[in-house]
Amino acid sequence: MEKIKEVFQYNGEIIGEIENMQKEKVNEAVEIAKKGFKKWKSYTPYQRSEILKKAAELLKKNKEEIAKLLVLEVGKTYQEALAEVERATQTILLSAEETKKLSGEEVIFEGAPKVKNKKGYYTRVPIGIIGAITPFNFPVNLTMHKVAPGLGVGNALIVKPSENTSLAISKVIELFYEAGVPRETLQIVTGLGEVTGKALVENKDVRMITFTGSVQTGDTIIRTGGLKKYTMELGSNAALFVDEDQENRLKEIAKKAKIGAFALAGQVCISIQRIFVHEKLYEKFLDIFLKEVENIKLGDPRKLETEMGPVINKDAADRILDWIYQDIKKGAKLLTGGRRAKYEEVGLKREDVILENLTADLREEFNTYHPCFIVPTVLTNVKDDSNLMLKELFGPGVFVNKVKDIDEAIEKINLSPYGLQAGIYTNNLKHAFKFAEEVECGGIMINEIPTFRVDLMPYGGVKDSGIGREGPKYAMEEMSEIKLICFDLN
Ligand code: NAD
Q1: Are 230 and 246 members of one domain?
Q2: Pairing of strands 186-188, 466-467
Q3: Is 473 helix (H, G, I), strand (E, B) or coil?
């Protein structure tokens, strides 16, 4: 049996192992899920809802244990991990509520010419077996955004979490069994994306893939899976515009923008990556923002005072820095960061870290610099054809560019092939409406950062940011089929 090690990226300790499941094992899970689907379909919405509520209760009871594991797996801080688990219980509870409401409506057949005495309606039915493939950054809550609504509808699910972060979610799935979900109805398969994930996508009996992850993987999945249903929650490079009338609020905006850009070391799908500030306030904003960013406390994510931990692994850190250097070569100006952190900057000595577990490539620089820690980075004057303008950095880097007015801000924001969420701070109602109407995104935040999300709202992107929406009510629509029933009463 092939194993994959999960490593705490702060000090290189091994946290646990997962199996790299091969195609045969995945196909076996699908056969089991066929029985699981039949069984689960016979539960009433009331019964499913009660079981989901119980699962939420159990998760609440176990939240500290799960959060501690998430800190080690993801490298996020304890506060971030706890917030994720608390949100996950909300996601399950919301799904329990929506389970009782999912319905269709009457269809007025007689509205068509020459039709008389035909009555009917449409209803929503489960799809069958659904594969849920999830990323590393919010392993519990994002998996719950698929599992809880999927079960609510009456589907059987097979979860394939990220190979970097499969431990906490395995524990959460055990809680669903304890709550009463049959083991055949909800299963987890662990392993590499291109092995285990691919096998799940290829299986024809898996009728839907609900995926959260990068656009590249999403694209591969659709090409591999062919004819089935998909929801795709993909990447982004969220933007914020600060309008000319915001002088009194600059401090508040800078503080929020710091959190939006650097929470979870910038590895949030709606992390702020691009800030456009009206030229009248640009210098002032930058000054306040830089001070905020330079005060971010890096360190051991297990410690309460730590604000930012490492990125997911050394390869991600290499790529992030590479993209930043490329943008600097194109003319962007580096204002702070743009390098790895030294061991002492993150509360470590070189000998505290098991480097061999963090990287196979033991470069000279890793005697001084931690392979997985990047100092919070701010750039300005980033060009239109740069990585940070167009791609998703998914790391602790953000730029602040000057714009002359809202038109220029909207034009720059729409340069991105992504469109998940964007935010504007303004007192000008016309500007707020213009921004809401013209920015190409799935969600627009007025007087809020684009990183705002609560789990009940419809969440998802346009353009390369995806297909479909999550949030239990909307996910349940995606994870069900419409079935039409027509009675001829002639
Ligand atoms: P990723 O695309 O590398 O991996 C996501 C999942 O896909 C993992 O479980 C991986 O094992 C699996 N996978 C990889 N190759 C596969 C294949 N060929 N077939 C089937 N499965 C495969 O993403 P990641 O690095 O774990 O997460 C970061 C990405 O997730 C970012 O792009 C981020 O924006 C995105 N994300 C989006 C949202 C959203 O709601 N829109 C939320 C969080 C993260």
Answers
A1: no
A2: unpaired
A3: helix
Same domain, 367 and 435: yes
Q: Is the CB of 418 under 6 A from ligand 1?
A: no
289 and 141 housed in the same domain:
no
Looking at the fold, whether 263 and 409 belong to one and the same domain comes out as: yes
Q: Count of CB atoms within 10 A of residue 334's CB? A: 18
For residues 122 and 215, membership in a common domain is answered with yes
The pTM of this model reads 0.98
Please give the pLDDT value at position 486.
Answer: 98
Q: Is 17 helix (H, G, I), strand (E, B) or coil?
A: strand
Query: How many Cβ atoms are within 10 Å of 209's Cβ, its own excluded?
Result: 24
Q: Is 79 in the pocket of ligand 1 (CB under 6 A)?
A: no
**Residue pointed to by tokens 């979610």:** 169
Ligand 1 pocket mutation, candidates 189, 194, 214, 387, criterion most atoms within 8 A of CB: 214
The response to whether residue 73 sits with its C-beta less than 6 Å from ligand 1 reads no
CA–CA gap between residue 435 and residue 439 (Å, rounded): 6
- Looking at the structure, tell me whether residues 242 and 197 fall in a common domain: no
State the Cα–Cα distance between residues 67 and 74, nearest whole angstrom.
10
In a domain, 460, yes or no: no
- As for how many domains the chain has, the answer is 2
In this structure, the residue with its CA closest to atom 43 of ligand 1 is 269
pLDDT value of residue 438: 98
> 276 lies in which domain range?
238-455
**In a shared domain, residues 244 and 229:** no
One domain, residues 212 and 300:
no
Q: What is the CATH number of the domain that holds 307?
A: 3.40.309.10
What local confidence, expressed as pLDDT, does residue 1 receive?
85
pLDDT for the residue 178: 98
Ligand 1 within 6 A of CB of 217: yes
Q: Domain of 143: which CATH number?
A: 3.40.605.10
| pLDDT < 50 stretches in the chain | none
Protein residue whose Cα sits closest to atom 22 of ligand 1: 193
Atom of ligand 1 at shortest range from CA of 420:
41
For residue 471, report the distance from its CA to the centre of ligand 1, in Å: 18
Q: Which of 4, 18, 133, 233 to mutate to test the pocket of ligand 1 (most atoms within 8 A of CB)?
A: 133
Task: Give me the active site residues, please.
Answer: 233, 269
Hey, is 122 helix, strand or coil?
Answer: strand
